[in-house]
Amino acid sequence: MAKPLMAKATAVWLVDNTTISFKQIADFVGMHELEIQGIADGDVATGVKGFDPIANNQLTQDEIDAAQGNLMHKLKLKFNPAASGEEKRRGPRYTPLSKRQDRPASILWLVKFHPELSDGQVSKLVGTTKPTIQAIRERTHWNISNIQPIDPVALGLCKQSELDQAVQKAAAKRAAEGGVMSDDERRKLVSTEQSLEMDAEPKIPSAIEGLETFTLGNTSDDEKADKEDVRDADSFFNLPAGGGDDEEDDSDDPRF
């Protein structure tokens, strides 16, 4: 249901000038009932001047009288033909000043991991301009050497649902054009939830990594020759069969 202009000021006027219940006023202006009670107690909207909804063509006196006589009656906003078709138009995404320096990093992430996204889609996701996107795509940005790709969802520049929606739209467009995609490209073109549900590619356990070409067949002739060429340890020292050089015959000693 449409809400009145200057909702809080309208609530202040209704509290001060009518006997309509807090619940009815809260439903009409889109606020919580406790906030309306706070206005009546002077704790909320201090210093806010009341906004007359009758004088500003938002309510009729008959509607207020009906609400005062029946607690179940819901106030209805007066129809204004001049306001037809004047719904709020969606403008460019607003990016807080504290996060604007992170936009190049998020653009580089989108360009690198989702190259299928158009410049218009990237612009809507992170709130930037097409010349900036083009400069990062072509790596002509003045600070390209210092930019590191960062997920825009992690930076708070867009929601995961918005990114998934843009990716799915790009996937539908690619499918309509009949383009052939690789497995890696197909994983990029699905949403995060779908990608997590995919079966993982078979990988070789780390314990046997590097043994892909190992065979248990007969050894080659060169390997046999290497094994036959192995000598025992004693052959490397050439030790004499008798005792050592330091030993002397005791019979040559004149004392015996």
**Total individual domains:** 2
Alpha-carbon Rg, integer: 41 Å
Q: What assembly state would you assign to the polypeptide chains in this entry?
A: single chain
Shape: elongated
What gap, in angstroms, lies between the N and C termini?
131 Å
List the total number of helices.
12
Percent in helix:
40-55%
N-to-C order of helices and strands:
HHHHHHHHHHHH
Mean pLDDT: 76
Q: How many strands, which pairing sense, and closed or not: the largest β-sheet?
A: none
Describe this structure in a few short sentences.
With 256 residues, the chain is mainly α. The protein is built from twelve helices and no strands.
Description:
Pfam families: TrcR. This is DUF1013 domain-containing protein. The chain has 256 residues and is mainly α. The chain folds into 2 domains: 7-83, no CATH class; 93-196, no CATH class. The protein is built from 12 helices and no strands. It is elongated, with a radius of gyration of 41 Å. The mean pLDDT is 76.
What would the keywords be for this entry?
2 domains; TrcR; mainly alpha; 256 residues
Topology:
Elements: H1 7-17, H2 22-29, H3 33-41, H4 61-69, H5 103-113, H6 119-126, H7 130-137, H8 152-155, H9 160-177, H10 183-188, H11 192-197, H12 221-228
Helix pairs in contact: 1-2, 2-3, 5-7
